[in-house]
Write a structure and sequence with these properties.
Number of strands: 12
Mean pLDDT: 95
Structural class: alpha/beta
Distance between the termini: 29 Å
Largest sheet: 6 strands, parallel
Bound molecules: manganese (II) ion
Low-confidence stretches: none
Strand order of the largest sheet: 3-2-1-4-5-6
């Protein structure tokens, strides 16, 4: 794909002109959402602007070591006199404006929409959507360079975490030559991969491991060995003393089984409501399933929510995933 790697001029101009910027990303924020948001906030502050990061949901604890993580505002609506006290909102990683968890009021501000999801709805006053970018963190790096803002080691670390998590540590199909080049630039500017890896994988709480042990017995294989599903009910969260944030990475265990092409993790967010996370290999498009049920994502990683009993929800997911393979 030959996409212009540069941010649109209009986007750069709007950022240069703004003094107080609200940055947000999607609900249930992942590494790209958190790393990009914190990285962009640091870039804007470096330019003398006020930048506030608001995420509707509390980020996973694994990201709490990132510089600025303790300053992230969470909850139903943005803080500090929203919307009157801001000039501009930037959404990162939000294919539609409601993905940030706040719909109408955000439109009180001009919205810059920066994303790499193919199905982005171009809802902003300026839209910078580059599906060839391995992570939104890479777009933030390109933007920082365009703005001539210094990317210091803490900023580079935020963006590296975004890139590393979205590419599965450079193992997924989006681990392109550009992804490696961007990683090289970020490490050159002071990002420490070994430190990020330690934060993500060696700071687990006992609750997270107990939750894994609750999940593993629920493993079921269907579709001639190609479809693996696991379930986490509220009861399992209670047994483990775990929270939703402890589910980070749990879906990958089923992916590791030989012959499995597509996997799902169903987790109960509130009684009877399941968030379904889907993963797939190669050309198998799980985004199509997610879109059918009002969700979204990428070809190989997507999700949606359903309200029904666990067994019924699992049967539906198995049916849909099996149909993808036939
Ligand atoms: Mn992303």
């Amino acid at each position: 794909m030959t996409t212009d790697p540069n941010p649109p001029q209009e986007l750069v101009a709007k950022i240069r002109a703004a003094e107080r910027v609200l940055i947000t990303s999607h609900v249930n924020p992942d590494g790209d959402a958190v790393g990009s948001s914190l990285g962009l906030a640091r870039v804007l502050r470096r330019l003398g602007k006020s930048a506030t990061v608001w995420l509707r949901d509390t980020p996973p604890a694994a990201f709490s070591e990132l510089r600025g993580a303790s300053r992230i505002h969470t909850g139903e609506s943005p803080p500090n006199g929203f919307p009157d006290e801001y000039n501009l909102a930037v959404t990162l990683e939000c294919p539609s404006i409601d993905r940030c968890g706040l719909e109408t009021p955000l439109e009180a501000l001009p919205v810059l929409n920066i994303d790499h999801h193919l199905g982005n709805e171009h809802y902003g006053v300026v839209n910078w959507v580059d599906p060839s970018a391995p992570a939104v963190g890479e777009l933030v790096l390109r933007l920082a360079d365009k703005l001539h803002a210094e990317v210091d080691p803490d900023t580079a670390t935020c963006l590296f975490l975004a890139l590393a998590t979205d590419t599965g540590w450079f193992r997924f199909a989006n681990a392109t030559p550009d992804a490696f080049k961007t990683a090289a630039v970020l490490v050159g500017r002071g990002a420490k991969p070994e430190q990020v890896s330690e934060w993500l994988y060696e700071q687990q709480s006992p609750a997270a491991l107990r939750l894994l042990s609750e999940m593993l017995p629920t493993l079921e294989i269907a579709g001639d060995g190609a479809v693996a599903t696991t379930v986490l009910t509220q009861e399992m969260f209670d047994n483990a003393g775990a929270e939703q944030q402890h589910t980070e990475g749990l879906i990958d265990h089923a992916r590791s089984i030989a012959g499995v092409q597509t996997v799902a993790l169903l987790r109960e967010r509130e009684p009877g409501v399941f968030k379904v996370s889907l993963r797939s290999r190669g050309e198998i498009d799980v985004q199509s399933v997610a879109l059918k049920y009002g969700g979204g994502g990428h070809k190989n990683a997507a999700g949606f929510a359903v309200e029904m009993p666990a067994a019924e929800a699992r049967a539906l997911v198995v049916r849909e995933l099996s149909a993808l393979l036939s």
